[in-house]
Amino acid sequence: MRNHGGPGHHWNQAEAASIRDELADSYRRLRSTTDGRTDAGSARIRGVLDSTLRSVEAVAPMWLTENCTDLLRGEVPVPTDGDDLPALGHRGLVLLEKSLSLTILGTAGPQGLAPIDGLLWWPASVVGEELIDDDEAPQMLMVHVLSEETTALTSPWPPSIWADARLTDLGMFALPLGVEFAPPTEAADDLAPAIELLLGLGAALRDGRLIFEAIGGETRSGPAPRTVAVVVPT
Fold it and tell me: CA angle, 123 as apex, 118 and 125 as ends, to 5°?
């Protein structure tokens, strides 16, 4: 994989469409590594990858500037209501102008840390012991953390999976729907900034406080991207 940046990146909103196409290609390559394998673990991985790819292909990537990100993170009530999250849509992809924070998820990079540069999510429920894609009445959103940094050398996936992509998938976490909860602090959880952003974004969308502009650009994998042009204060 190419590491193109740092806090400010070497790519911008005009490249959002091509970044999404690169992600789609990478998830397809990743899924192909399970072809022909019939064990339960491979079947579960295929299910997660199918759901992830479905989101990449179904949604318009949303570009967030550094200013919008800061505004949205600052408007999360505590405790917050998981009912705000569905306002995002059960599937989504956010690309960030500036890295959000560092995370140990996936033990990425030589120092075990990687910047959070994007978020991708899909709707899920647990049935028995299985995690299933559920657009009808999901219990949670499965959120994938995307980063410019490479994954750890101990990753089970070959580096060629992400060779042509500017972002790689570090791993995923779950956010519950329909329940009240207190977001974690950054001291307790390095994913806290990502959770704050999604909750703030959901609340702003629910209240109609966002004004979008189309970015344009051809994309092979789905709807054209858009950017948040204005965040209307509460």
Answer: 135
For residue 210, the cross-strand partners are 231
Please give the pLDDT value at position 134.
94
DSSP 231: E
Nearest to 174 by CA among 137, 218, 139: 139
In Å, how far are 19, 153, 191 from 31, measured between CA atoms? 18, 20, 26
* Residue 43 to residue 78: CA distance in whole angstroms: 38
Q: What DSSP state is assigned to residue 11? A: -
Cα end-to-end distance, the chain, whole Å: 41
Task: Give the angle subtended at the CA of 225 by the CAs of 219 and 226, to the nearest 5°.
Answer: 160
Residue 4 — pLDDT band, cuts 50, 70, 90?
A: very low
Cα–Cα distance for residue pair 115/12, rounded to 1 Å: 16
For residue 31, give the 3-state DSSP assignment.
helix
Query: In this structure, what token pair is assigned to residue 104?
Result: 């140990």
- pTM of the prediction? 0.90
